[in-house]
Amino acid sequence: MKIQPEELVENGFEIADRMDHKNLIPFVQLYIRKRTISFLFYYSVNLFLVCWIILQFYLMSSSSGISIGHGFNLASNGILFAFLIIPLHEGIHALAYKSLGAVKTSFDVNWMKFYFLAIADRFVASRREFPIVAIAPFAFISLILLVLYFVTTGDWQITWLFTLFTHTACYSGDFALLSYFDFHSDKEMVTYDDRLTGESWFYKKPF
């Protein structure tokens, strides 16, 4: 969106919310539970993946047998792979921001609470633009993992399913932000990050 943060007020916007990058969990928890389209999609996908994993275990157990210990090892591998692709996930966020015109992108991490952020400093994203940034890593990585699932067999399929489930479940923050925009669908909403202060700001104005 071709507007600077300091120009928002003169263009009819007013502050709606502030998200502190050092304490974003309360914001995420609030909006990941709102009954929005993004909420329904997020939980439906996770439930579907759990059912898929259970079915895959059942089919493998029926055909060739699989011990609980071996299943735990496969799940652990999937979880490990999901954490290894965190840089890819955040990098895709940054590329999506740049494709929309952001100039200054960077990354932040909170090791104590173990969450990661891609930041587009002072780039104002509109309601139409922000979902592109939020959904791009989920869509791209999910597609790659599904391809890997269908071109492999046996143990690898379980591993890729666990990777997909862990990746989806752990990135509730992306879907919480989408849910925030859904929840405020009666207003024109924009958002931007402030790297210096470590905050994300949300502005609104009536349609």
Describe the overall structure.
The protein is α+β, with helices and mostly antiparallel strands and 207 residues long. It is built from 7 helices and 6 strands; from the N terminus they run βααααβββαααββ. It has one domain (5-206). 56% of the residues lie in helices and 18% in strands. The longest helix has 27 residues, at 37-63. It is elongated, with a radius of gyration of 19 Å.
List strands and helices in order, with pairings:
Elements (H helix, E strand, L loop, with lengths): L13 E7 L4 H7 L5 H27 L4 H17 L1 H14 L5 E6 L4 E6 L4 E2 L3 H22 L3 H16 L1 H12 L3 E8 L4 E8 L1
Antiparallel strand pairs: 1-6, 2-3, 4-5, 5-6
Helix pairs in contact: 1-7, 2-6, 2-7, 3-6, 4-5, 5-6, 5-7
Annotation keywords:
single chain, two-stranded antiparallel sheet, 7 helices, 207 residues, alpha+beta, elongated, 18% strand
| Helical content band | 55-70%
Q: What spatial order of strands do you see in the largest sheet? A: 1-6-5-4
Shape designation: elongated
Structural class of the helices, strands and pairings?
A: alpha+beta
* Relative strand content: 15-25%
Task: List low-confidence stretches.
Answer: none
How do the helices and strands follow one another from N- to C-terminus? EHHHHEEEHHHEE
Average predicted confidence as pLDDT: 93
Tally of helical runs: 7
Total number of distinct structural domains: 1
Main beta sheet, described? 4 strands, antiparallel
Q: What's the number of extended β-strand segments?
A: 6
Which value, in Å, is the CA radius of gyration?
Answer: 19 Å
N-end to C-end Cα span: 17 Å
